[in-house]
TrEMBL record, chain A:
UniProt-recorded name of the protein: Na+-transporting NADH:ubiquinone oxidoreductase subunit E
Entries under InterPro entries matching the protein: NqrDE/RnfAE, NqrDE/RnfAE_oxidrdctase
Transmembrane segments: 6-34, 41-62, 82-102, 109-134, 146-165, 177-199
Protein origin, superkingdom: Bacteria
Gene source species: Oligosphaera ethanolica
Top enzyme class: oxidoreductase
Primary location: membrane
Topology within the bilayer: Multi-pass membrane protein
Compartments it resides in: Endomembrane system
Keywords from the named record: Membrane, Oxidoreductase, Translocase, Transmembrane, Transmembrane helix, Transport
Entry EC number(s): 1.6.5.-
Example GO molecular function: oxidoreductase activity
Species lineage: Bacteria, Pseudomonadati, Lentisphaerota, Oligosphaeria, Oligosphaerales
TrEMBL record, chain B:
Gene Ontology cellular component annotations, sorted alphabetically: endomembrane system; plasma membrane
Pfam families, per database record: Rnf-Nqr
Keyword terms of this UniProt record: Membrane, Oxidoreductase, Translocase, Transmembrane, Transmembrane helix, Transport
Family matches, as InterPro entries: NqrDE/RnfAE (IPR003667)
EC main group: oxidoreductase
Source species of the chain: Oligosphaera ethanolica
High-level lineage: Bacteria, Pseudomonadati, Lentisphaerota, Oligosphaeria, Oligosphaerales
Main location: membrane
GO MF annotation: an example: oxidoreductase activity
Protein's name according to its UniProt entry: Na+-transporting NADH:ubiquinone oxidoreductase subunit D
Bilayer-crossing regions: 29-55, 76-94, 106-127, 139-159, 179-197
Domain of life: Bacteria
Keyword Chloroplast in record: no
Localization per Swiss-Prot or TrEMBL: Endomembrane system
Membrane topology value: Multi-pass membrane protein
Length: 204, 212
């Protein structure tokens, strides 16, 4: 049985050493586009963390319950080739559902978070976490997957907030014209990734 | 993208814009998610670029053919499903005939589904264009993406490992910059490429303001 240490390792590993954004390159589009102000970056990070956590657990249940060979409900049929389609449908459907629930019951949260929700469906980080879950042939059990999904989401949240902070400072900086915008953002990301590489030894 | 909305360029115009002044990676800031992960080696990059060209062009074609039957409100969902189907086909083909390559690419083939280029072209162009221009637009944008990726991959493999497609190029005394093979190296390479491109052609996309 997995011990508490292993959970801590998975959590720290997915937040710091294997940061979904800085080490696995996922979620870059929204990371670059949304990280201009701290408020929006914070909202986006929160939304991504929440959706990643929930959809990964849902998809874990679907994958082990129905899709894979020897699954609980359809053991004789191997439907794992459908995983891409099912995963993205679950994510899109879940995002739609969250949007409707928030609009109906928590309008204030909806207006602060709502604009990011449609963008989340095509955020590679979320599908990425879902695919990494099955890529190594389900190395984690349910609880470990939950910790991994949470850590990955938190890692994205941390990275996007750090980036927003740095970009805030950069407004005063004198950047060469060709480097403004995308060029600078990518180079800063590279420097951040370098800093995060320092965590590798800590976890492994 | 804006250029395509204002005027209707001919087939050659579509291809030229997608490779150059509307290049999806460098100008529109689309699809850089996977643009970096697989550029450590030229061979994986070639396969990825080819896969993306196939998926983008066929998805655009399919969305364009179906454009009058797709209900407006659920169009994103339908587009995602069309894209997923083509990605699954590519994934199964790689698994069946090129297992080593499929393992090397890992989950990044599946991540073509959320590559913003594919959905972006379907949503911005294919959904209201005739099939042939839509197909060409998808193909050209895929090619524009592949071109940038290939450029980055050549830099990273050549300087980071001293090889090109697995053959060593430099004399044995060459000390490869291992740093370029790591994640930060990929980011810095892309940053510098963007910098160089924008210095040479300053008019290419002043400030990226596309979200997503």
């Amino acid at each position: 049985m997995a011990s508490t240490t292993s959970y801590t390792l998975i959590l720290l590993g997915s937040i710091l050493a294997n940061n979904i954004l800085l080490a696995k390159f996922l979620g870059m589009c929204s990371f670059i586009a949304i990280s201009r102000s701290m408020r929006t970056a914070f909202g986006m990070g929160a939304a991504v963390t929440f959706v990643t956590f929930c959809t990964t657990l849902l998809n874990y249940a679907i994958y082990t319950g129905v899709l894979r060979h020897g699954s609980r409900f359809l053991p004789a049929v191997d439907l794992s080739y459908l995983s891409f389609l099912i995963f993205i449908l679950v994510i899109a459907g879940f995002v739609q559902l969250v949007e409707m629930v928030l609009e109906r019951f928590m309008p204030s949260l909806y207006f602060s978070l709502g604009i990011y929700l449609p963008l989340i469906t095509v955020n590679c980080a979320i599908l990425g976490v879902n695919l990494f879950m099955i890529d190594q042939g389900l190395i984690y059990d349910f609880a470990q997957t939950a910790v991994y999904a949470l850590g990955s989401g938190l890692g994205f949240w941390l990275a996007i907030c750090l980036m927003a902070g740095i970009r805030h400072r950069l407004r005063e900086a004198d950047i060469p014209l060709p480097l403004q915008g995308l060029g600078m953002a990518v180079i800063i990301t590279g420097l951040m990734a370098m800093a995060f590489m320092g965590f590798t030894g800590m976890v492994n | 993208m804006a250029a395509l909305q204002n005027s209707k360029p001919g087939p050659m115009g579509i291809i030229r814009d997608a490779l150059g002044k509307d290049n999806p990676v460098l100008v529109q800031v689309l699809g850089i998610c996977s643009a970096l992960a697989i550029t450590g080696l030229v061979s994986t990059t070639l396969v990825m670029g080819l896969a993306l060209m196939i998926v983008t062009s066929l998805s655009c074609l399919m969305v364009s053919v179906l454009r009058s039957t797709i209900p407006y409100r659920v169009r994103l969902m339908v587009q995602m499903m069309v894209i997923s189907v083509f990605v699954i086909l590519v994934h199964l083909y790689l698994r069946a005939y090129h297992l080593e390559m499929s393992k090397a690419l890992g989950p990044y083939v599946g991540l073509i589904i959320t590559n913003c280029i594919v959905l972006g072209r379907c949503e911005a162009f294919a959904i209201r264009s005739k099939p042939l221009p839509a197909f060409l637009d998808g193909l050209a944008n895929g090619a524009g993406y592949a071109l940038v990726l290939l450029f980055i991959a050549v830099i990273r493999e050549l300087l980071g490992g001293g090889t090109l497609l697995g053959h060593s190029v430099f004399p044995a005394s060459f000390q490869p910059a291992m740093f370029l093979k790591t994640a930060p190296g990929a980011f810095l390479t892309l940053g510098v490429v963007v910098w160089v491109v924008k210095s040479i052609w300053p008019q290419t996309g002043a400030a990226p303001n596309h979200e997503g």
